[in-house]
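Table S4 entry, Arginine biosynthesis bifunctional protein ArgJ.
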Amino acid sequence: MTEDITPVEEGSVTTPRGFQAAGVACGIKARGEKDLSLICSERAGRVVGLFTENRLPAAPVLLSRGHAARGVGRAVVINSGNANACTGPAGMANATEMVNRVASGIGCPPEEVFVCSTGRIGIPLPMAKVRRGIDEAIEQLSPQGGDDAALGILTTDTYPKKMGLRVSLGEQELFLGGIAKGAGMIDPHLATMLCVITTDGDVSEEALAAAARRAVADSFNRISIDGDCSTNDTVLLFANGLARNPTLTLESGDFRLFQSALSLLMGRLARMIVEDGEGISKVVEILVQGAADDRDAERVARAVAHSLLVKCSWHGEDPNWGRLLAAIGYSGAAVDGERVDIFYNGVQAVAGGARRSRTPAGLLLEVVRLPQFTILIDLGIGSGHFRLLTTDLTERYVRINKGE
């Protein structure tokens, strides 16, 4: 973090000027937790949306994707506890009603309102409860509502994920804030996750889109918990321009600083998602270098991160590097078995595709007993590289997801 980018204590989506939020309990969740959030700018601004690549997207994704094509937005309503996915024409009608109700309540065109849902797939939304929740959230909109909004979007998460940043642009400053949720069905592109980022910066449409794509590519598209791609994944970035800075364009000297701040914010939120993964006990960073190209490096990283055998061995605190080699071999990447080296937190386990005999087994055991560690895989044939953040797989993950 540079001296021009500093964290804001208790930062959230309401850290930037002109944004209000609320989070309420409307009864979608049986145990009475907050389950509906509303985030709203006092005026419409530019917006960029990035969405799941799942070919069976939920109704909210379809609706919001259409609104994002206009590039203008003012608010987003999010419910948790129900994904409104695979719910047919009624699901789209319900998502549309949510948008229209918010638009009527805050006084803007429906096309400036976005909608997200997260939770169980295939269950119709309880619209009577949702209507009451939207009305209550509109009444409770506040510049202090960011924390409640962060709570209202959670599903199996164990804590809210939020952050705010201050960016100094000479004598001016702008702010960014964000909230996210995600704990299971995490794998690009994107993950089972929702994220709303706000900024009061004035950023051109082209620059905002470019910054969002790059930040997502380096953060949410580089995490994996269980290899599943959700029907509802959404990242929304709102910029209302109330900082009144000279408009940032791709050619602006300060655009790189804005990009760095946005990438930092999304990167921190993405890491929080991984660290709060369902039932996890280990966070593992996979670094691949020496690949034929970056795409091959990514193939290797994802093959290792998705291997159930590898993930189970991490949970068992067994440095079973043979499972890593097997995953590397079936990844589809170009590989020379006599050039592969593998390191655990800098301790070499594999040299030239075979066990490094001079490395005491106890050193590797010490590494895999840590709650967080790094595995470096060097393919030794090129300059391609890729980084991915992932987790182990535990019995608790199974208990969470077996449907009880």
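The mean pLDDT is 93.
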